[in-house]
Amino acid sequence: MSRIGKKPIELPAEVQVDIQGSKVTVKGPNGQLERECHPEMRVSLRTVDGKRELVVERPSDAPRHRALHGLTRALLANMVTGVSSGFTRELTIEGTGYRGEMQGDTLVLLVGYSHPVKFEPLPGLSFAMDRAGRVITVKGRDKELVGEVAARIRGTRPPEPYLGKGIRYSDEHVRRKAGKAGAR
Q1: Among 84, 99, 134, where does a domain finish?
Q2: Within a domain: residue 175?
Q3: CA dihedral 41, 45, 47, 50 (to 10 degrees)
Q4: What is the Cα–Cα distance from 162 to 135, expressed in whole angstroms?
Q5: Which has fewest Cβ within 10 Å: 39, 50, 100, 127?
Q6: d(CA 59, CA 64)
C-alpha cells in the first residue's frame, strides 16, 4: 500500500465535503475548491470515534493505481488545508534599487527593467508587501495556484549567481560564484 495513500485525511469541524461520483467539493472558511478525481480511485467519507475522515481507496496493486492512490490523497489533503487555513509563499527582493509596491490589489515590481512589472491577483489569491518593499507574500487557498504565481513572480528577475540580485524564495539558497580573477 502507498504510505501516503492509505493515511486518512482528518477533516476539521468547519470543513464540509461533498462527493458526487469522482467530483469532490470541499467548503470551508476560506472558500470552496473542486477537483475531478480519477474515476478509478474511490473517495469516501467516514466517521471514526467522532472524527470525520476522507479516505481514498484503489482498485488494485497495479503500479498506475499505486501512483494515483498517493497523488489523489495528497491533492485532497491540500484542498482541505487550503479551505481551512490556506497557503502562503514568501519571496524576497535583493539588489540595489530593486523594490516592489502595492497599488490597490496589484503588485508592481521595479526590478531593473525600463518599465514596472505588474501582477494582477487571480481569483482566490492575494498579495502583500512589507513596508520596505522587499518581501512579497502570496496567499491563497489553492496550493497549486499559489506556487505557480510565486514562480511567475520569481521568473521576472531570477537571482543571479555573481551578485545575488533578483527575486528569490525566502527559504531559497542561491549558490554564489566567484567573479573574474584579477590579472597578475
Answers
A1: 84
A2: no
A3: 130
A4: 21
A5: 50
A6: 11
* 3-class SS of residue 108: strand
Residue 177: inside a domain: no
63-84 and 143-156 are packed helices; what angle lies between their axes, rounded to 10 degrees? 80
Q: Is residue 3 one of the residues assigned to a domain?
A: no
Structural domains counted in the chain: 2
Same domain, 108 and 60: no
pLDDT digits (tens, 9 = 90+) for 124-183: 999 999 998 899 999 999 999 999 999 999 999 999 999 889 999 999 999 999 888 766
- Alpha-carbon distances of 63 from 5, 55, 60, 108, rounded to whole Å: 13, 19, 9, 46
Nearest Cα to Cα of residue 9 among 34, 26, 23: 26
Say what the pTM is. Answer: 0.88
CATH of the domain at 154: 3.90.930.12
Count of CA atoms in the C-beta half-sphere (13 A) of 20: 7
Instruction: Cell numbers for 89, please give them.
Output: 509563499
Q: What are phi and psi of 23, to 5 degrees?
A: -95, 125
Distance CA 47, CA 32 (A): 22
